[in-house]
């Protein structure tokens, strides 16, 4: 059941990270447009810096779950790689436990900030007077998805540790190996080249004359 739930969370996190990427592109175009308008007319559209800040915070929180589930976070593994697989598995679970505690604490505080802003209908101290509860709501959504992913992955890893299933722990919470990195890059390269396959201009039985 937990494995199925992890797959569902991975699907949701993939859509979330795509949406976050779209937000960053939108913010970049908006800031660029503001700079061009300011350079040509001497006036500013206004609000681009504020909106881009909100989008950056939201897109960042929406990427946390995807980073966790795909193990693409930065890890210092100089000593880790020297240990045996059993010790690596125990350290993976310990690291995941600490990260879960931290993630839940951050999420709890973020919920408190959102509830406070919504209760008093707090607004930004900018000309836009943005109701802070609106961007904070979407920011908290990303943190909730991250916290849910942490809890599910931690539970599955603890079960695997009790079963002495180091391979499963490595797949869920271990540092990515060089081989995994290479295989992913090859997979991405193959996916990009796939649409061009079969489109040969001089295949068998074909003549340009």
Q: What would your notes on this structure say?
A:
The chain has helices at about 1-40, 50-70, 85-120, 135-160, 165-175, 180-195. With about 210 residues, it is mostly helical. It is globular, with a radius of gyration of 23 Å. The relative contact order is 0.13.
In brief:
Helices cover 73% and strands 0% of the residues.
Secondary structure elements and their pairing?
Elements: H1 2-41, H2 48-69, H3 85-120, H4 133-162, H5 166-173, H6 178-193
Keywords:
mainly alpha; disordered C terminus; 6 helices; 209 residues
Low-confidence stretches: 198-209
The largest sheet is:
none
Individual helix count: 6
How many domains in all?
A: 1
Radius of gyration: 23 Å
This entry's quaternary arrangement is single chain
Global outline: globular
Mean pLDDT: 84
SSE sequence, one letter per element: HHHHHH
In percent, how much strand structure appears in the residues?
A: under 5%
Overall number of strands: 0
Distance between the termini: 60 Å
What structural class should be given to the helix and strand makeup? mainly alpha
The helix fraction, in percent, is over 70%
């Amino acid at each position: 059941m937990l494995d199925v739930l992890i797959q569902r969370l991975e699907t949701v996190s993939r859509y979330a990270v795509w949406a976050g990427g779209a937000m960053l592109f939108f913010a970049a175009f908006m800031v660029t447009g503001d700079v061009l308008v300011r350079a040509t007319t001497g006036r500013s559209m206004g609000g681009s810096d504020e909106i881009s800040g909100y989008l950056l915070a939201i897109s960042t929180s929406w990427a946390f779950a995807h980073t966790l589930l795909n193990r693409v976070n930065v890890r210092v593994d100089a000593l880790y790689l020297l240990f045996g697989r059993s010790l690596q598995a125990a350290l993976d679970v310990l690291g995941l436990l600490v990260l879960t505690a931290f993630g839940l604490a951050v999420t709890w505080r973020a919920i408190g900030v959102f509830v406070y802003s919504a209760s008093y209908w707090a607004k930004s101290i900018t000309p836009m007077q943005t109701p802070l509860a609106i961007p904070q709501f979407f920011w908290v959504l990303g943190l909730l998805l991250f916290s849910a992913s942490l809890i599910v992955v931690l539970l599955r890893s603890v079960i695997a540790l009790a079963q002495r299933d180091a391979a499963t722990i490595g797949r869920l919470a271990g540092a990515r190996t060089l081989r995994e990195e290479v295989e992913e890059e090859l997979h991405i390269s193959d996916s990009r080249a796939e649409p061009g396959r079969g489109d040969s201009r001089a295949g068998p039985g074909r003549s340009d004359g």
